[in-house]
UniProtKB/TrEMBL annotation:
Coiled coil: none
Pfam families: Metalloenzyme
Keywords: Signal
An example molecular function term from Gene Ontology annotations: metal ion binding
Signal sequence extent: 1-21
Record protein name field: Phosphoglyceromutase
Residue ranges constituting the Metalloenzyme domain according to the UniProt record: 220-347
Source organism, top-level taxon: Bacteria
Length: 361
C-alpha cells in the first residue's frame, strides 16, 4: 500500500512539474493600449498645426523637447522606445502616408466599443454603444485564457480607467482587474502598500481615471511577484488630456507612456521567466480629429469626427519578423484578439472572433 501511495504521489508531482514546465515554455503576451492616441502622433511626431494653435500654452518648451530637423527626428524625440527599439526589432503598422492603414470595425469610435473590439476580436455596436458601466456580455481573450488549462490563474489586467472591470467582466471571467483608484489586494509588498497609500494623495485630475504612473507600478509589482503569462495594461491619460485641449500635457503624457513601456520591456529582457519568450502588442482604442473644425476637432472622437476610426499597431517579440515600419496594407483592430489567441495557442469560438490573425512572419 505504501508503495502504491508513493507511486501515486510521484505521478502527481511529475504531472504538476510537467504542466508547470509546459506553461513556462509557452509564450507570454503583454497587451498594452494607449487611450485615444492618433496615428499621426506615432508616425510623424509633434503636430506643428496644434503646436501653433490655442491648444498649446508653452510653445517654446514643446519645441525644445519635441521638434528636430525632420519628422523622423521628431517622432524619435517624442517616442524613443517605439523608434529606437520597436522599429528596429519589431513592426509598426498604421502610417497612412505610406499606405499602411489600421482601422476600427465598430462604428461608435469611442472607448468601450474600441476596447471590446480589441479584447474580443469583434465589434458589437448593438449592445456596446456607450461608456456606461455595464458588464460586458461578450467574452474577452483574457477570459478565454483564464478558462484554459495552460493559462488559468496566469492572467491579469491593470488600467487607469475605472470602467475596465466591466469591460473585462471581472465577476464572470475571474480575471483580476486593478483599475481606476482600486488598491492592490492580497499579500502586499512594501511598494504596493506605499502605492495604495499615495495614489489618492497625488493630484486627482479625473475621478474616473488615475494617473498612469500608478497603473504602471501596480502592474509591474504584480508581474514581478506573480509572473502572469497574459497581462493587459491600459494607460489612459492621453485621451483625457486631449479632451481637455491640453496639447502640452498630451505630448508629455505620450512621451511618458513610451518610457513606461520601455521600462517594462527592459524588465522583461532581464527576467529569466520572460526573456526571449514574451510579445508586446501595443495599440489604441480609437483615433481622433486632426484639426479645429467640429467635424475634425482634435479634442474629440466618435462617429461624427473624421479620422476617429484610424488606429495603429506595434508588435515586438521573439517570433516577429523585423519589418520595422510597414507600408501598403490594410489591417483592422479586430485582428488583435485572434493574434494573441494564436500566439498563446488558445482555442476560440470562430463565430466570436471571425477576424484573421495578423501575419507576424
Amino acid at each position: 500500500m505504501k508503495t502504491l501511495h508513493k507511486l501515486v504521489l510521484a505521478t502527481l508531482i511529475l504531472t504538476s512539474l510537467t504542466s508547470k514546465g509546459q506553461q513556462e515554455k509557452n509564450p507570454n503576451v503583454f497587451l498594452i493600449t494607449l487611450d485615444g492616441v492618433r496615428w499621426q502622433d506615432v508616425f510623424t511626431g509633434i503636430d506643428t498645426n496644434l503646436l501653433n494653435s490655442n491648444y498649446t500654452h508653452n510653445k517654446e518648451l514643446l519645441i525644445s523637447k519635441y521638434v528636430g530637423k525632420s519628422e523622423e527626428e521628431n517622432r524619435k524625440m517624442l517616442m524613443p522606445f517605439f523608434w529606437n527599439t520597436i522599429a528596429k526589432e519589431g513592426q509598426l503598422h498604421g502610417n497612412r502616408t505610406k499606405g499602411s492603414t489600421v482601422d476600427l470595425t465598430n462604428k461608435m469610435l469611442f472607448s468601450y466599443p474600441g476596447y471590446n473590439e480589441i479584447l474580443t476580436g469583434k465589434a458589437d455596436d448593438e449592445h456596446i454603444n456607450s461608456n456606461d458601466k455595464n458588464y460586458n456580455k461578450n467574452v474577452t481573450l483574457l477570459e478565454t485564457a483564464n478558462a484554459s488549462e495552460l493559462y488559468r490563474g496566469k492572467v491579469a489586467a491593470f488600467a487607469s480607467w475605472d470602467v475596465f472591470p466591466f469591460i473585462i467582466n471581472d465577476k464572470r471571467s475571474g480575471v483580476p482587474v486593478n483599475a481606476g483608484y482600486m488598491d492592490a489586494v492580497g499579500a502586499l509588498n512594501e511598494k504596493e502598500k506605499f502605492l495604495n497609500e499615495i495614489q489618492r494623495q497625488a493630484p486627482i485630475i479625473w475621478e474616473s481615471v488615475r494617473l498612469d504612473v500608478f497603473t504602471h507600478h501596480f502592474a509591474k509589482e504584480y508581474i514581478q511577484k506573480e509572473h502572469p503569462k497574459l497581462v493587459y495594461i491600459a494607460y489612459g491619460e492621453t485621451d483625457d488630456f486631449a479632451h481637455e485641449g491640453a496639447f502640452d500635457f498630451y505630448m508629455k503624457s505620450l512621451q511618458n507612456t513610451d518610457a513606461l513601456i520601455a521600462d517594462l520591456w527592459e524588465y522583461v529582457q532581464n527576467d529569466t521567466f520572460y526573456k526571449d519568450n514574451t510579445y508586446f502588442i501595443i495599440t489604441t482604442d480609437h483615433g481622433r480629429g486632426d484639426g479645429v473644425a467640429e467635424s475634425s476637432k482634435w479634442t474629440s472622437h466618435g462617429a461624427d469626427v473624421q479620422g476617429a476610426e484610424h488606429t495603429w499597431l506595434a508588435i515586438i517579440g521573439p517570433g516577429i519578423s523585423k519589418k520595422g515600419e510597414v507600408s501598403n496594407e490594410q489591417l483592422f483592430t479586430n485582428q488583435v484578439a485572434p493574434t494573441v489567441a494564436e500566439i498563446l495557442k488558445l482555442e476560440t469560438n470562430a463565430t466570436n472572433t471571425p477576424a484573421k490573425p495578423l501575419e507576424l512572419n
